[in-house]
Amino acid sequence: MIDYTTRQVSNSVTVVEASGTLYESDRKYFFDCIGDMIESGSRYVIIECHRLGHLNSASLASLLTARKHAAKKGGRIYLTHLSSGIAEVLEITKLGRLLSVYPNTETAIAHIQSDPACAG
Is 53 within 8 Å of 76 (Cβ atoms)? Predict the structure, then answer.
């Protein structure tokens, strides 16, 4: 079961602390909520993964869909605090090249604030 809390960093940045395991039954709900955040103006969504269990192929597909949705709105999905298992999956699948991965939330926020492409 997946659980998460959110906090607004700014009008366009939301941090999502996810915990638990992203089972098939939770996947659609969780990523629909991410999509709702993007539609509500959070162009940049940072997902903290340190309390998140593994990601299966369906979860990875949903993550890429959320990335595409954010990009259409001029935003991005960031992943931070990756567990070794999630980092390994992203490395093996080469999805780390497509996703914005940072060691921690503070680094991701600093990137957003300093990147002219993220201004606005």
Answer: no
Stated pTM of the model: 0.91
| Segments forming the whole domain that contains residue 41 | 2-118
Q: Which pLDDT tens digit goes with each residue over 35-81?
A: 999 999 999 999 999 998 878 887 888 888 899 999 999 999 999 99
Q: Give the integer Cα–Cα distance in Å for 90 and 32.
A: 22
Q: For 19-29, what is the mean pLDDT?
A: 81
CATH for 107: 3.30.750.24
Interatomic CA distance for residues 97 and 12, integer angstroms: 23
| Tally of structural domains, the chain | 1
List residues bridging with 44 in a β-sheet: 13, 76
What are φ and ψ of residue 87, in 5° steps? -60, -40
Average pLDDT, the chain: 89
35 in Cβ contact with 45 (< 8 Å)? no
Sign for the CA dihedral angle at 70, 114, 86, 25 comes to: negative
